[in-house]
Amino acid sequence: MITETCKTLRSAQATLALHTAAQKNRALQCVADALNKNRNDIIAANKADLEAARARGMSESVVDRLLLDDRRIDGIIASMGVVIAQTDPVGEVTGGWNTPTGLSIRQVRVPLGVVAIIYENRPNVTVDAFCLAYKSGNAILLRGSSSTLNSNRAILAAIRQGLRAAGADGVADAVALCEPQADHGDVAQILNAVGQIDCVLPRGGATLIQRVVRDARIPVIETGAGVCHLFVDESADVDMAAAIAENAKIQRPSVCNALDCILVHERCAESFLPKLLATFAGRVEIRADKVAYDILHGAPGADGTRLVPAQEGDFGYEFLDLICAVKIVGSLSEAIAFINAHSTHHSESICTNDRAHARAFQAQVDSACVYVNASTRFTDGGEFGFGAELGISTQKLHARGPMGISALTTTKFLIDGDGQVRA
Q1: 27: closest CA among 12, 40, 43?
Q2: Do 391 and 223 form a contact (C-beta atoms < 8 A)?
Q3: Is the pLDDT of residue 32 over 70?
Q4: How many CB atoms lie under 10 A from the CB of residue 412?
């Protein structure tokens, strides 16, 4: 099944690669119109997925990731508008020079070809991934999870309706949905599709990502899992630090850029931790190391807080829930070393009024996104101005951080001569 699907995608990509930016933009606008027109069908399909998820006992934080409503569909369509307005990267000349032999060399940006994305929950990814792939001239195989199958079917139907409505400007076969098999045999086929799929992106939890990285025989762009830290430096404004922690942990705890661990300099622990306790106001379970636990246990409001002693496994763990680990450190260097040892190289932040500490933190923390005095929740394609994103790349080759349209391109060299032969 994957082989035939990939043949169709490859043929469609060859057609799409010839389309101009104007043609691709018109097709994407037709898709946005179709999503808007079919929103009631999409929401009804999503409701069936939500009901099934709750029947299986999924937590509400996970169910929230499945949800599509009018507001979220409006957001999806708005994100498509941002992508449509962006400059098409295909054909961009990234370098050019003439050689002593008279050759004219240009390095130009081109699509990757046929890409696949394997993702969990979040049906908005279905649109985001398609939109970015199409704009950058790629065909895409979408493999969502069984928990969003009804939603993804309805979304794909709308996407194809929009592409067909675009007439000659639309390439409806440039997108396909791989329906999940109970034994995950379809995933194995994707990961072994050498020569058929040019690149695969996993987007989801650590188990999914680790499996793809371990088993794939095709190139992988590793994305997803985020163990995110906030370091409260000794010079920090404790009110600002508490507000950043509240936003990063509570605003949407089920996403990869949510806060998992707070490191606190020992010199401001007595002033910051009670402020944190008051700000969290019993909404977050705090798993604190011994020093932090002793401070928090005696602070006002502790009786109404889920406060438990931290275990070693609480550090370096992505909670995806209203749970946060807290640890006291003795210096900036200790905080940096701890983060580099326990993070997934996603997003980290320091709250400080010391410029030298801020720059040292940004220079030495080995993560894709490193903030000063801001929430890790900003690690997002939309917030970075990309409109949509394929995911947050936590690796170092090809792409890192939020991945927009350029991340789905590579380059090739175009060389013009007038009869040169090498001596």
Answers
A1: 12
A2: yes
A3: yes
A4: 9
